[in-house]
């Protein structure tokens, strides 16, 4: 009887494993196929792409779209601006979020519950676009880098996740022992808390860096000078210009339409590639930090 029960359990486990593996393969295919198709389409003859002949691998490889995009000097200026905005913005985000999350994680902070209430309230209510623009304008930050990095210096969700990590993964007893040994609050943060918080720091770096890299709307509102455009706005202009050229009634209309089609895929690759290259370096800490930092609210 017991042997039959064990055999049935093993059979059920095999069925369960098979279903899980099949679902995992399906998810991988669903996620990877669009990426592979975009890469293939960017290298393929656009006429074949429009006709639906490019399904997985590129056909009649051409680099015309890449040449047209990278010959634009604004692309390189936009890359440089975006790298600068992302680096400076992520450092500001990380410092400000850490300095806010650590005190809020301490049980001996007076009024901690009230402070967290008002912090959480900002997730549901905001001043709106016009008051935000007027504030940025009155602070003299319009058409400057600071308009893109200062207003969003702390993301409420990230603050809550980091505070939760400090509460659930760094025992209060360790902090008390450090204080007894004469450790100041600043030294405790820099020498004890942060070295134990590498997973959540990696998560914050990834979240904030991806947010800055993909930032589009704030730049569209606050940045006026083309030499200060981030990559996303530059690519938007490149795409709009290529589509406008395609609608031109002059000769070569068909070739312009086909080129505009290829440029769409090149723009997607250019804007996404740096983030895809960065992710593997923080993946180990990212998964651990997200899981642990989200256990408690």
Helix-strand layout with pairing:
Blueprint: H1 2-43, H2 46-50, H3 64-70, H4 73-105, H5 112-121, H6 129-138, H7 146-149, H8 156-169, H9 172-180, H10 185-193, H11 198-213, H12 217-222, H13 231-246, H14 253-293
Helix pairs in contact: 1-14, 3-14, 4-8, 4-11, 4-13, 8-11, 8-14, 11-14, 13-14
What does this structure look like?
- With about 300 residues, the protein is mostly helical.
- About 75% of the residues lie in helices and about 0% in strands.
- α8 (about 155-170) packs antiparallel against α11.
- The mean pLDDT is about 80.
Shape: flat
User: What summary fits the major beta sheet?
Assistant: none
Regarding quaternary structure, how should these chains be classified?
Answer: single chain
H/I helix tally = 14
The computed structural class is mainly alpha
Percentage of residues assigned to helices = over 70%
Strand content: under 5%
Low-confidence stretches: none
Mean pLDDT equals 82
């Amino acid at each position: 009887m017991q042997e039959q029960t064990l055999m049935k359990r093993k059979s059920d486990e095999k069925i369960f494993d098979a279903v899980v593996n099949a679902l995992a393969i399906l998810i991988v295919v669903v996620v990877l196929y669009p990426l592979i198709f975009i890469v293939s389409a960017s290298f393929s003859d656009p006429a074949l792409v429009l006709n639906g002949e490019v399904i997985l691998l590129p056909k009649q490889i051409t680099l015309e779209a890449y040449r047209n995009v990278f010959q634009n000097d604004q692309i390189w200026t936009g890359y440089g601006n975006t790298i600068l905005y992302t680096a400076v913005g992520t450092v500001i985000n990380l410092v400000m979020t850490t300095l806010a999350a650590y005190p809020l994680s301490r049980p001996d902070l007076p009024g901690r519950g009230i402070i967290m209430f008002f912090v959480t309230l900002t997730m549901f209510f905001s001043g709106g676009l016009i008051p935000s623009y007027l504030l940025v304008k009155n602070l003299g930050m319009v058409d400057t880098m600071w308009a893109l990095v200062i207003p969003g210096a702390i993301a409420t969700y990230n603050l809550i996740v980091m505070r939760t990590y400090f509460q659930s993964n760094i025992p209060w007893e360790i902090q008390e022992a450090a204080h007894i040994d004469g450790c100041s609050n600043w030294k405790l943060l820099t020498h004890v808390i942060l070295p134990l918080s590498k997973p959540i720091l990696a998560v914050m770096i990834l979240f904030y860096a991806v947010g800055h890299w993909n930032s589009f709307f704030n730049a569209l509102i606050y940045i006026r000078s083309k030499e200060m455009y981030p990559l996303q706005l530059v690519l938007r202009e490149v795409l709009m210009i290529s589509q406008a050229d395609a609608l031109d009634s002059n000769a070569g209309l068909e070739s312009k339409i086909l080129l505009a089609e290829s440029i769409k895929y090149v723009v997607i690759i250019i804007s996404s590639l740096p983030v895809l290259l960065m992710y593997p370096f923080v993946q180990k800490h990212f998964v651990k930090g997200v899981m642990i930092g989200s256990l408690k609210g």
